[in-house]
Amino acid sequence: MYLADRLRELAIREDRIRLARDLHDGVLQSLTGVRLELQTIAAEPTGEPPLQDRLLAIERALAIEQRELRLFIEDLKPPAGTPADAGSLAQRLDEMSARLAVEWKVPIVVRVTPAELSLSSAAEHGMRLMVHEAVVNALKHAHPSKVTVDVAARNAGLAIVVRDDGRGFPVLGHFDHDELVRHNAGPASLRDRVTALGGRMAIDSTASGSRIEITLPSDQTSLLRA
């Protein structure tokens, strides 16, 4: 009886940790960007640039974030598949990248291969949080002029590649997953999320940009084909 109670407590604790991490990596980072934009507008002379256009852009970003939050809450329930009216995986990634592009004023290109690629609800949620964190990390720290995201089915698993043309990580070079774990390097929560799913992450960092590649095994992605 004690063992069962202890296992239940550990499961609840892990769920709370996951919830806190997901909220931090997703919603809170986006709302921080919106808050910074509002602060910038407040500090500018009225009418330069047109206030209405920028406020409308922020409103659109908040509307998209509300949808993200609703999807997140749905994902906390037992998975029942992706709603039929939610659009394709590529469309949802495009929507997320459009929101980030509005917040950070940096173009973000997303490519999904094959275009009809779809995942289970839980797998897609985890994948989108990984993409979100990798992109936001580049926008915040590398100051790029462009970010590209490639999501592709590979060997029955999933490969995610995020590239930017910014200033790279503080340490330049190639770092595989084992090196990142051993030296506690790279985006910590992203690395931990990948590790928890049995995936691998590698970073290529140069003075003219960086590349993060994440590979997830098929038993964690539950790949589905439309």
Detailed description of the structure:
By secondary structure, the protein is an alpha+beta fold. The protein has one domain (2-225): Heat Shock Protein 90 (2-Layer Sandwich), CATH 3.30.565. 54% of the residues lie in helices and 20% in strands. The chain is built from seven helices and eight strands. It has a six-stranded mixed beta sheet with strand order 1-3-4-7-6-5. Strands 2-8 form a two-stranded antiparallel sheet. Helix 1 (2-42) crosses helix 4 (121-141) and helix 2 packs across helix 3 (89-104). The longest helix is centred in the first third of the chain and has 41 residues, at 2-42. It is globular, with a radius of gyration of 19 Å. The model is unreliable at 78-85 (pLDDT under 50).
Secondary-structure topology with pairs:
Elements: H1 2-42, H2 51-76, H3 89-104, E1 108-113, E2 117-119, H4 121-141, E3 147-154, E4 157-164, E5 173-175, H5 177-182, H6 188-196, E6 200-206, E7 209-216, H7 218-221, E8 223-225
Parallel strand pairs: 1-3
Antiparallel strand pairs: 2-8, 3-4, 4-7, 5-6, 6-7
For the sheet with most strands, the description reads: 6 strands, mixed
Give the C-alpha Rg: 19 Å
CATH superfamily: Histidine kinase-like ATPase, C-terminal domain
Query: What global shape is seen?
Result: globular
Average pLDDT across residues? 79
Please give the domain count: 1
Terminal-residue CA separation: 45 Å
What is the beta-strand fraction? 15-25%
| CATH topology label | Heat Shock Protein 90
Given as residue ranges, the uncertain stretches (5+ residues, pLDDT < 50) are: 78-85
Helix-strand makeup class: alpha+beta
Helices, by number, come to 7
What is the CATH architecture assignment?
Answer: 2-Layer Sandwich
- Which CATH first-tier class would you pick? Alpha Beta
- List how many beta strands DSSP finds: 8
Order of helices and strands: HHHEEHEEEHHEEHE
Instruction: Report the helical percentage.
Output: 40-55%
Strand order of the largest sheet: 1-3-4-7-6-5
